[in-house]
Write a structure and sequence with these properties.
With 162 residues, the chain is an all-alpha fold. The protein has one domain. It is 83% helix and 0% strand. It contains four helices and no strands. It is rod-shaped and about 150 Å long. About 3% of the residues have low confidence.
Length: 162
């Protein structure tokens, strides 16, 4: 029986060694799994940071575009208001001119360019004296009062709030 006991001992040792190998393989598999999970977590975190960075870049670009669009809208509103004021002033000047012509038919009409320039200056808020000075300089008018009267009315200081 010594052969049987040696065989039993060899089987026991082999079984023990197989269990050791299995335990080592399980430990190695567990370590590989942990490393794979850690690598996957790092990968996901990197992708998340990259996505966040890209999102922030897009948000900044969109912010710039929105700001630019808002500035353009503000400029267009200002220009539209200016055009509307000029149109209103030109209507007002036309009415004043019609009234002045019907009241004084013998009056000599002013040239159109100085009248237009006087209207522009009046719309911009210039006072009578400033408008007359500009007409003297720009059109060499010696007596611009008649033109300014057509825009502001006789004795008027400004186009609105005389």
């Amino acid at each position: 029986m010594s052969g049987t006991s040696e065989l039993g001992r060899s089987i026991t040792q082999a079984t023990s060694r197989i269990h050791e190998i299995i335990d080592a393989a399980e430990q190695l598999a567990e370590e590989i799994r942990r490393e794979a999970e850690a690598e996957a977590a790092r990968y996901l975190e990197e992708r998340r940071r990259e996505a966040d960075r890209m999102t922030e870049e897009r948000r900044a670009e969109l912010g710039k575009l929105t700001e630019s669009a808002a500035e353009q809208v503000a400029r267009l509103r200002t220009e539209a208001d200016s055009v509307a004021q000029t149109i209103d002033a030109m209507r007002w000047v036309a009415e004043k001119r019609e009234n002045a012509q019907s009241a004084e038919p013998a009056r000599e009409p002013a040239r159109e360019e100085p009248l237009l320039r006087a209207t522009q200056l009046a719309v911009e808020g210039a006072r009578r004296e400033e408008i007359e000075d500009a007409l003297r300089r720009e059109f060499e008018l010696t007596e611009p009062r008649a033109v300014v009267d057509q825009v502001l009315g006789p004795g008027g200081e400004r186009i609105r709030g005389d």
